């Protein structure tokens, strides 16, 4: 019989699961991001561990999102095309089938297009009926091929429509960005769809030092709770959704927007913004941390040149002599890869370039009769989740 003086020894399971470091080791070894989300729902202690920035960086390194294929979209195309990429993932085959078949869910003459793609989700726009308004639909669960048409916004500001974007988190369905600018004055309204209801997320305005000239919708992105919009002028407009601040970020010296595909922003982890800049034979990649920004009109950017690529040396063997870099038509998160359009005459191709390995391959041939802008949206496996503690 145990005496009263005998100290209580907790079970081994409690010793393990009550140790934050050991719990972190266990969570880092789960088989998928989906399993990590389920584990994070066990208790707030596990959620705090799973949402830690250092932990998520390590988890991403061991469970990186993989490129399954890409959507090609353009004004001339009656509907997007899905192009599969070779990968050894077991689940890739089903994801490729889903991506290839989901386009058939749209009725004829609905003119579907791709607005955004991230973490296995795809946001489409389409026409509701032969002459109906533009609507949105989202592929939420790529494994099941579940696509849902989204409710229309109560009041569509058609003359101010700028972009529709997928969120950073799973609690939100999508964002809609409306922009209006006259001279130096810029007004942005962002609406959000949550639980089937549209509401205004934020309204922001500012008198910028220099008129934007034009704000480019096809290269607008959402990252880290901020919307970034490329302008014809030498800066990027940023709208902080949490503070409703609108300000401009100066571009690095020598980096300018000349035409579509010469300046493309890219999402990064830990509040990092990347930009791809194409000029002549050179492709440069810049990065800038965004977590210390404020609401100044022109924020002094601390840009760092991460990489410079000679397109002729890395991709020249894939195309005819005399081919030039036409544009950057798509990029991967964290500047992992880029899709470049290159060619000469009637032979223009999309080249996939992995920045780390410098591996390049020809993945798509452009229709010679098409002289419109095309855009590539990478379709990835599900990446590490983004947890927001205030939601729990």
TrEMBL record:
Transmembrane segments: none
Domain F-box as annotated: residue spans: 21-58
Pfam families (UniProt xref): Beta-prop_AT5G49610-like, F-box-like
Domain F-box protein AT5G49610-like beta-propeller: residue ranges: 114-387
The organism's place on the tree of life at top rank: Eukaryota
Alphabetical list of InterPro entries matching this protein: AT5G49610-like_b-prop, F-box-like_dom_sf, F-box_dom
Name of the protein this chain belongs to: F-box domain-containing protein
Native organism: Eleusine coracana subsp. coracana
């Amino acid at each position: 019989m145990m005496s009263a003086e005998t100290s209580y020894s907790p079970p081994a399971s409690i010793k393990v699961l009550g140790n934050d470091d050991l719990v972190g080791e266990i969570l880092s070894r789960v088989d998928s991001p989906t399993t990590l989300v389920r584990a994070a729902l066990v208790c707030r202690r596990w959620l705090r561990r799973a949402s830690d920035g250092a932990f998520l960086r390590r988890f991403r390194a061991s469970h990186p999102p993989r490129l399954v294929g890409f959507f090609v979209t353009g004004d001339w195309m009656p509907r997007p095309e899905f192009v599969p990429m070779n990968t050894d993932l077991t689940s890739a085959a089903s994801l490729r089938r889903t991506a290839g078949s989901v386009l058939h869910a749209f009725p004829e003459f609905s003119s579907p297009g791709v607005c955004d793609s991230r973490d296995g989700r795809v946001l489409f726009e389409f026409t509701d009926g032969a002459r109906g308004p533009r609507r949105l639909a989202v592929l939420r669960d790529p494994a099941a091929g579940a696509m849902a048409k989204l409710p229309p916004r109560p009041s569509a500001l058609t003359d101010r429509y700028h972009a529709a974007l997928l969120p950073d988190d799973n609690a939100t369905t999508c964002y809609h960005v409306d922009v209006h600018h006259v001279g130096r004055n810029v007004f942005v309204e962002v609406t959000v769809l949550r639980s089937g209801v549209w509401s205004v997320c934020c309204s922001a305005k500012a008198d910028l030092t220099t008129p934007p000239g034009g704000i480019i919708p096809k290269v607008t992105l959402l990252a880290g709770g901020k919307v970034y919009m490329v302008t014809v002028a030498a800066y990027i407009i940023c709208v902080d959704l949490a503070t409703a601040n609108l300000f401009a970020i100066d571009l690095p010296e020598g980096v300018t927007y000349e035409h579509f595909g010469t300046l493309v922003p890219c999402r990064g982890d830990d509040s990092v913004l990347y930009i791809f800049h194409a000029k002549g034979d050179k492709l440069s990649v810049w990065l800038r941390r965004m977590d210390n920004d404020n609401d100044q009109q022109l924020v002094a950017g601390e840009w760092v040149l991460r990489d410079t690529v000679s397109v002729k040396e890395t991709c020249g063997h894939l195309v005819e002599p005399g081919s030039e870099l036409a544009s950057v038509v798509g990029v991967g998160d964290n500047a992992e890869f880029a899709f470049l359009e290159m060619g000469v005459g009637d032979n223009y191709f999309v080249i996939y370039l992995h920045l780390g390995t410098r591996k390049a391959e020809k993945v798509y041939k452009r229709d010679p009769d098409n002289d419109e802008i095309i855009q590539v949206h990478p379709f990835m496996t599900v990446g590490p989740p983004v947890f927001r503690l205030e939601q729990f």
